[in-house]
């Protein structure tokens, strides 16, 4: 069963507000890591782009919808919501929330031990009706990354649940150098772009670093 990945993009009003957002999200991350086995990733990240220094991204992965529902109902999250809704001065713009499910993904346990992992959040838009075909290329990229790129610590190809022509990715590398020198030059990436690049209509990147939370937790075993 695919997991559910939610990415929240918070635009802080100032550096002080940014730290308050990080602190509030960090508390939830501590709770999830200790008390919610089905929350397999809760990473608090910030943009490394000097032109976007007030953006905070929360990257959350849930084993199933029941875990999402329980997480949202928890006291920790209710306190977070209360903080964010009562102090609107924290935000420069409304928070954007992207709800997705995994098409293909893997995460290495080593991702939690990486000293300064380089994270990519990418959004790819495709021509009407072509997204499903595009997943074939991404399946090959994911397989190649998992089997032959030890420095690719996590890779998730995500089906946007609200925008039917959009694919999103969460990628974690041991370093930025590894992304450009190894992953980006792989045959799978090159072939994917050559075969499916012409049906893409837009491509956006956010380059991030982790400031709190965790990138990996083993998924709870299923009784099914």
UniProtKB/TrEMBL annotation:
Every ABM domain range = 4-98
Q: Which domain of life is it from?
A: Eukaryota
Which Pfam family, any one of them, does this sequence belong to? Answer: ABM
Per its UniProt record, what PANTHER family does this chain match?
BIOSYNTHESIS MONOOXYGENASE, PUTATIVE (AFU_ORTHOLOGUE AFUA_1G12025)-RELATED
Name the UniProt record assigns to this protein:
ABM domain-containing protein
């Amino acid at each position: 069963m695919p997991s559910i990945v939610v990415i929240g993009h918070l635009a802080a009003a100032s550096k002080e507000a940014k730290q308050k957002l990080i602190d509030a999200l960090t508390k939830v991350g501590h709770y999830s890591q200790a008390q919610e086995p089905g929350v397999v990733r809760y990473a608090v990240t910030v943009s490394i782009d000097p032109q976007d220094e007030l953006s905070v991204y929360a990257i959350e992965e849930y084993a199933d919808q029941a875990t999402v529902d329980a997480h949202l109902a928890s006291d920790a999250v209710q306190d977070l919501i209360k903080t964010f809704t009562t102090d609107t001065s924290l935000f420069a713009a409304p928070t954007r929330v992207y709800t997705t499910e995994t098409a293909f993904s893997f995460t290495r346990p080593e991702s939690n031990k990486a000293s300064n992992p380089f994270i990519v959040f990418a959004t790819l838009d495709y021509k009407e009706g072509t997204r499903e075909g595009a997943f074939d290329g991404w399946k090959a990229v994911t397989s190649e990354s998992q089997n032959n790129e030890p420095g690719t610590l996590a890779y998730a190809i995500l089906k946007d649940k609200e925008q039917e022509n959009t694919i999103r990715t969460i990628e974690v590398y041991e370093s930025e150098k590894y992304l450009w020198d190894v992953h980006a030059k792989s045959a799978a990436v090159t072939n994917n772009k050559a075969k499916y690049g012409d049906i893409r209509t837009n491509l956006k990147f956010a380059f991030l670093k982790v400031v709190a939370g965790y990138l990996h937790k083993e998924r709870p075993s299923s009784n099914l």
